[in-house]
Amino acid sequence: MAEELRDRTYATFDGEEDTPSLEELSRNFLSEQQKSWPELRLAYDSLRGTRYRDIVCNGFSVRLLFNPGRAVNTTAAVSPEKISQRPCFLCIANLPVEQKCILYRHEFLILGNPRPVVPFHLTIAHMRHIPQAVAAHMEIFLRMAADFGPGFTILYNGPRCGASAPDHLHFQAVPSGQMPVEKEIDGRKGFTPTVSRTRVTDVSVRGLAGLGREVILIEGDDVPRLAAAFRDYVHDLADVSTPPGGSAGEPMMNATASFDGRTWRLLVFPRRAHRPAAFYRDDDARLLVSPAVMEMAGIIVTPAERDFDRLDAAAIESLYREVSFIHD
Ligand SMILES: [Zn+2]
């Protein structure tokens, strides 16, 4: 693997001083990859045609995204067996030959996401093929948010709610400020924070009522304390949320992390379902929306044009009620 890694490494980031920031490095890296990797260039060409539609719901808003270059037939079948038999596309040995990486703190590969939803969309894969789970890796998740700085937000999809590779630990990063929930929290509009319910000092863990789905806001300025508070929260959530197929593994959730230069902000979206029931229909009522972290944060990707055209506030509110886990 050492040789393979060396050949693929565009740059390394170890957090040393006097080196380019991770944000600058990543932006330059993606520009370079668009020149040297035709598949990524095509994906970015197609991204420029993305259409969007903002929908104001009760207390919050969402942005629908439709990329005509990526439109899919709503009746196309996706077999889970096919997916489970494919070679892991995050393992270094299986990456396309043109795909390069930034080696991050000897542990993760920062990669251009070959299916970007927004410009500068990164996939961040662990160097080893280890299962997707965030609690045990919360420190590096937060460290990454600080290393990227305020310009990027780090994203996590649980293995049963949106992760494209549930068997290989990975995060994503996107430029900050595009997901509606970020603005709603900054503006402190449309929601009422509950009192902090953590046992960890100097960390605040609050529910944000009024955003149409359960959003947990965890804030603090110390990584070990934040990680401890997050693990406490997940432990409590596991008591009330048993995922389908048994209680093994972490409770269903998506999460984001950002750092403003002093304080970390973690958002957790507890989940009760991976997809709305309408996803599985085979008639005109089929809704081809598969909510993952971006959808929970307010960017809803509609691969089918008819969903982009017909979704309205009531349908969005109902979608969130169906997949979000709301508890006391
Ligand atoms: Zn893998």
Give an overview of the whole structure:
The strands form 2 sheets. An 11-stranded mixed beta sheet has the order 1-4-5-6-8-7-12-13-11-10-9. The chain has a 3-stranded mixed beta sheet with strand order 2-3-14. It is globular. The chain has helices at 2-8, 22-36, 38-47, 80-85, 138-148, 180-186, 223-240, 293-296, 305-310, 313-323; strands at residues 9-13, 51-56, 61-66, 101-104, 108-112, 122-126, 152-157, 170-175, 192-193, 203-209, 216-220, 253-259, 264-270, 299-301. Helix 2 (22-36) packs across helix 3 and helix 5 (138-148) crosses helix 7. The chain has one domain (2-323): 2-Layer Sandwich (HIT family, subunit A). It contains 10 helices and 14 strands. Helices cover 29% and strands 23% of the residues. By secondary structure, it is α+β, with helices and mostly antiparallel strands. The site of zinc ion has 5 residues, from loops.
How many E strands?
Answer: 14
**Distinct small-molecule ligands in the complex:** zinc ion
Q: What number of domains? A: 1
Q: Tell me the β content.
A: 15-25%
| Unreliable parts | none
**N-to-C order of helices and strands:** HEHHEEHEEEHEEHEEEHEEHEHH
Rounded Rg: 19 Å
In the CATH scheme, the class would be Alpha Beta
Question: Can you give the mean pLDDT?
Answer: 91
**Most strands sheet:** 11 strands, mixed
**Silhouette:** globular
Q: Regarding quaternary structure, how should these chains be classified?
A: single chain
